[in-house]
Predict the structure.
Amino acid sequence: MRGFFYCAKAAARLFILLVTRCLLLVTVVPLFVTVVHAERIKDIASFSGVRENELVGYGIVVGLNGTGDKDGTYIFQPFANMLTRMGVSVSPADIKGKTKNIAAVIVTAKLSTMIKPGSKVDVQVSSIGDAKSIQGGTLLMTPLKSYDNNVYAVAQGPISIGGFIAGGAGAQTIKNHPNVGTIPNGAIVEKEVPVQLNKKNRLDILLASQDITTSKRIADGINSQLGGTFAKAEGPSDISIMVPDAYAGRVIELMASIEQINVDIDAPARVVINERTGTVVIGENVSISPVALAHGGLTIEIKTDFQVSQPQPFAPAGAATVVVPKQALKVEEKKAALMDVKGATIGELVKALNALGVTPRDLVAILQAIKAAGSLKADLVLM
């Protein structure tokens, strides 16, 4: 009998132990479910001085199938000058009106900092004359200059427009934009943009989107990793960093380690509206105060039917056919129920607006009205 009570007592202790552990597990699980929204500094900011530089040049495209410039005289003078440099003596008047296979273009490219001579970059070619298409054309050697008027790259090669133009005056089919094309790896770098990063004793980080809170968090994250006060938030978009002595001459390594730091982003509450396209983008932190909302639409339709009155058989001479327009006017107003919107979060706001059955165009008007009423807790940005 004692053995029975002993087994029952042990079983009870085991049951209590299991229940206690389960309760502890239930209590601890929510701590692990919580997700911190963080982004790498590399994805939200960039280092000052590490950027792309714009290049531009004037070029000539040849080999077009009769779709080149026709009326502009500026294309024929540069083309004649080029032929003269090649040993072919010709005047612009000799070329004008006799060829339709050349076109004047503007060539643009982006040159990254510290890219070495001999590297290749993509270029974009855009027609500036009255050419119908630059499909199938070849860009002749074009120097690309920066704002200092120095040549940093030279572009040349066949153009890809990713589309076509076909047909004649009566019927025509066009895919994509035939007057703009690209040349992948079409420019060879001739001069480097000099930036000595390893010799710097100070770095500046520029935020893609200005925010004081995020700027301060980036500075704190850098100081925490470096183990000292080296970073300082200078404003909503600028963080200055003094290079530690341990990274003297190794600034590239410091920049690589800073880029991998995760920082919590504090995005402002913002609603972006594009009225031209009816596009509405609502940010994560957008909320509204309790408000009653009703939205209806007034539709006016005017339709015109043209009825033809013809003369009867054996009608007198001179009887003519008469066209009589008949107009019909229809006015329809949708019934709108008044709905109580108590959305404190974006999910509740979207659910309430979907319940009203609003379209994107209606949503633009509704959000503007809620903002005017003072219930929308966000910035309203119109594009």
